[in-house]
Design a protein that fits this description.
about 600 residues, alpha/beta, Rossmann fold, 4 domains, six-stranded mixed sheet, two-stranded antiparallel sheet, 12 strands, about 10% strand, globular, NLRP_HD2, nucleotide-binding
Length: about 600
């Protein structure tokens, strides 16, 4: 690439920058695996389905619920390769300068960023760009209280560019990539911000970023931001030229993943079959990262003494995943004689509960990235279940491999506090003299975006003795009083009377985590009954009906035996009817 008016020295600097980015991006790690420096990105990268626009569901849903909604939709949009996100479609007559890419966690936004950068650094596509500047929010957080100019920011995060001057920057076409807005601890204010137009002018990071996005700084520079949908609301739509969304794995991609993951046909077929028998697991496997978790658990169960019934619920799966991680830690460090996973869990009890405390406290704050001070507050030094990022400032940044892992450990910690009568934690969380699971569920239902939905699902799943046995002494001394599980189930069913349909579906999921199939069976009996018009359906029945495979099968059959669904005697609210209609429409697309 030759830049008009540039010196040979600048060309050498930019070439060195490309080589540095290539080394940085060509190897990646999957999940929490870090040994051996990772694997080649080009070897494992699967092209993601990126579309223009945004469905909007995940703005007000827990991400697991968003996956569930997405699994019912047919795709008709034109896909956009990540290398083409700054190229307008043939019918679009506009310049695309700022791109915002949304998706739920674990789909592969960061891998897309790395793939784009690697292709550029290897001399492939987008060679009209002179400089690609990677600025992950997790690293920007480390200097959030400092003052920098944009030029200083380039020098600090990319030392190979330290010789680049203000004048030289003016002849370069730059692309700034801000990965992980949802991980940001900056406060982006587009209304009361200071205007900065000089790349050498010092300011706070949030002011620099907003001015760059608005075009006050380097008006010709391209900007790419990746985010979870809820966090993306920080950026006004007027400042975004193209909004894109990364779609999750389709069924064929899930199966392809497991077949590539296992060299033998038999284990891959077993894993695929098990995934299909559990609707929740089948939905979550739309995430590549959850496919990795599922593969790790089932591979361990199929190749060790830990055989038996394969996991069917989320709590089952994550309990086994915790066992796999503790076993992996022992094998990695050759710790002591052969012991059972449950004994290993007991040995690591203290550190796992500290992890649970960290997960619980940060979940309430909405944080998914942690720093050394966060760990120290919980008495932690380092842990294998974290993903550790080596960043520019040689300060470690930590995260759980996925938000769902954080939610599971938070639930384990909360359940431990309950069984060990740690009322202080319970009172602080609930804000009053209440320490029952019923009130935790109530609190989660009041959340508009459902950020506690998976957390309470896990809490209910941990009530089962089978999961308590799996986790050994981690939960403390549990009391399996006769009728306790049934009382929790009855309380869940009573909650429906005052909960909106879009929130009540999580009650149904909590029942499934407790392996209570009564609502599902009642729906099946309702569909098979000859006097359906005389039966009343509750809110939870409407929610279950909209997720019921029996209904989907009946609607898709040709000819369909389900010709009428008469709700005249049920007096459902408008919101319930709309909820049921949208769900059923999704089933038959």
């Amino acid at each position: 690439l030759i830049i008009k008016g540039s010196s040979v020295g600048l060309q050498e600097v930019l070439q060195e920058h490309k080589m540095n980015l290539r080394r940085r991006c060509e190897h990646v790690t999957e999940g929490s695996d870090e040994a051996g420096g990772g694997i080649l990105l080009n070897r494992i990268y699967t092209e993601l389905y990126i579309t223009e626009g945004h469905s909007g569901e995940a703005d007000v849903q827990h991400e697991v619920m968003h996956l569930e909604t997405a699994s019912k939709k047919s795709l008709h949009e034109t896909p956009i390769r990540c290398q083409d996100i700054f190229k307008a479609l043939p019918e679009q007559q506009r310049v695309i300068r700022v791109v915002l890419t949304n998706s739920v966690a674990g789909i592969g936004k960061t891998f897309s960023v790395l793939k784009f950068t690697l292709d550029w650094a290897e001399g492939g596509e987008n060679q009209d760009v002179s400089v690609v500047v990677l600025l992950p929010f997790r690293e920007l957080n480390l200097i959030r209280d400092e003052q920098h100019s944009l030029l200083m920011l380039l020098h600090v995060f990319h030392p190979t560019l330290q010789k680049v001057t203000t004048e030289q920057l003016a002849v370069c076409k730059l692309l700034f990539i801000f990965d992980g807005l949802d991980e940001s601890r900056l406060s982006l204010d587009f209304t009361n911000r200071k205007v900065v137009s000089d790349v050498s002018q010092k300011s706070s990071l949030d002011v620099l970023l907003t001015n760059l996005m608005e075009g006050n700084l380097l008006s010709s520079a391209l900007v790419w931001i990746t985010s979870h949908p809820a966090a993306a609301n920080q950026i006004p739509p007027t400042h975004v030229d193209r909004l894109t969304e990364v779609r999750s794995f389709a069924d064929g991609q899930k199966e392809e993943y497991f077949r590539r993951r296992f060299s033998d046909k038999e284990p891959s077929s077993t894993v695929i079959s098990n995934m299909k028998t559990s609707r929740n697991l089948h939905i979550l496997c739309r995430l590549p990262l959850f496919c990795w978790i599922t593969a790790a658990v089932l591979e361990h169960m199929l190749t060790t003494e830990q055989k038996g019934e394969l996991p069917k619920t989320l709590t089952d799966m994550f309990s086994h995943f915790l066992l796999v991680q503790t076993q992996r830690k022992k094998n990695m460090y050759h710790e002591g004689p052969e012991t059972s996973p449950q004994e290993l869990m007991e040995a690591d009890r203290e550190v796992l509960l500290k992890l649970g405390r960290l997960a619980f406290e940060q979940l309430q704050k909405g944080n998914i990235m942690f720093y050394q001070e966060d760990l120290e507050q919980c008495g932690l030094d380092v842990t294998e279940i974290f993903r550790r990022e080596c960043v520019t400032f040689q300060k470690p940044v930590y995260s759980f491999v996925h938000l769902s892992i954080q939610e599971f450990l938070a639930a384990v910690y909360m359940f431990h506090c309950y069984t060990n009568r740690n009322t202080e934690v319970l009172k602080k969380f609930l804000g009053e003299e209440r320490n029952d699971l019923y009130f935790v569920m109530q609190k989660s239902l009041r959340s508009r975006n459902g950020h506690l939905d998976l957390f309470v699902r896990f809490l209910h799943g941990l009530c089962l003795e089978s999961n308590q046995r799996l986790l050994g002494g981690l939960l403390g001394r549990t009391e399996n009083r006769p009728g306790m599980v049934q009382r929790v189930i009855n309380n869940l069913k009573k909650m429906n009377n005052y909960v909106s349909p879009d929130r009540s579906i999580n009650i149904f999921h909590c029942l499934m985590e407790m392996k209570d199939l009564s609502v599902h069976q009642e729906i099946q009996e309702f569909l098979q009954s000859e006097n359906r018009s005389e039966k009343n359906l509750s809110e939870i029945h409407c929610s279950a009906l909209s997720h019921c495979e029996v209904v989907a099968s009946a609607l898709k059959s040709n000819p369909s035996h389900l010709e009428h669904l008469d709700l005249r005697n049920n007096y459902p609210e408008d919101s319930s009817v709309e909820h049921l209609y949208l769900r059923l429409c999704g089933m038959i697309k």
